[in-house]
Every structure is written in structure tokens, then in C-alpha cells.
Amino acid sequence: MSALDTFNDEPADRAVQALRACNAAPRFAAELVAGRPYPDVDTLVRRAEEVARGLPWAEVAVALAAHPRIGDRVEGSSPEAEASRQEQSAMAGADAGTRSALLDGNRAYEERFDHVFLIRAAGRTPEEMLAELHRRLDNDEETEQAEVTEQLAQISALRVRGMVS
After folding, report:
1. pLDDT for residue 89
2. Total structural domains in the chain?
3. Other beta carbons less than 10 A from residue 128's beta carbon
């Protein structure tokens, strides 16, 4: 039995729990579980992106609360912690100057927008993430909320794919 078959067939509460590690917004898990069964991984991943992109800001904020800062050492053994460690693995090679700049940038971002800086870390270097952080500090609130929602959709898609692949 494939991981997708398991996801399609498991009890709704277990499927919701698994999806919460991909995106903590309650509506995200509820809508994906309601759409089961999925014929293939790509259909499920596309639906995960659509649902995440369509979340109202209040739900995005719930998901943000479950994400660590870029550059923080993620502790714990939860599925969320494991996913964050894997996604931020490039940070292990960051030099002290980049790490320090990210910490300073995170503080400035949180003061400006009142939430954690969210970026799809997978496939990006620490320097690329820092450049994006600096660029996004100039966004207005509405533009930044749209960027955060898009980053959440990309992270959610990667995590859902990992869950069923």
C-alpha cells in the first residue's frame, strides 16, 4: 500500500493530524481531508497549494505561529520540527556574518509586520534568504501578506509531497 493510499484510507482525524505538520491552519487540513480520495500525488499537492493560497489571513497567522524563525535551531521531535530542520539544512553552512544578519533581519521584520518571516527555505542558500528578507522589509502590509501566503503554499506543497511520497 502506497503512502497516498494510506492517506486516502486512514481515519479523518489521523489524516488531519498528519496534515497539521504540513500547515497548521485548521481549514487547510479540513479541506484536504474532505477532498479524499486523491487519484495521485500531484493532484493532492496541487490541491494543497490551492487551499493554502486561498486561506484567509487569520488562518495564515495560525500556520505562521507554528513556524520557527529562519536560522533558529529547531528543537523537538514533532513532525513540524523535523520538516523545519530538513528545510533549513542549508543554514548549517551559513557563515557567522550571514547568521547574525538573519537574526537582525528577523527582529526588524517581526517589529515591522508582527509575525515571523516566512520563506520556502528548501532550495535556497542562506544568502538568498537574507536578500529576500531585506527586499520584503520594504513591502506594504497587503503585499507582504500575499508573499507570506504564497510562501506558505510552497512550503505546504513540499511537505504534503514528502508526506505521501
Report:
1. 67
2. 1
3. 13
Given a contact cutoff of 8 angstroms between Cβ atoms, the answer to whether 19 and 34 are in contact is no
What pLDDT, in 10s, does the model give residues 74-108?
666 666 666 666 666 667 778 989 999 999 999 99
- State the virtual CA torsion across 115, 28, 23, 25 in degrees, nearest 10: 40
pLDDT of 10 > 70? The answer is: yes
Mean pLDDT throughout 50-60?
98
CA distance 143 to 57: 12
Chain Cα centroid distance, residue 134: 19
Q: CA 110 → CA 8, 148, 161, distances in Å?
A: 38, 13, 29
Could you tell me the CATH number of the domain that includes residue 35? 1.10.3330.10
Range of the domain at 51: 3-164
- How many Å apart are CA 137 and CA 74, to the nearest integer? 24
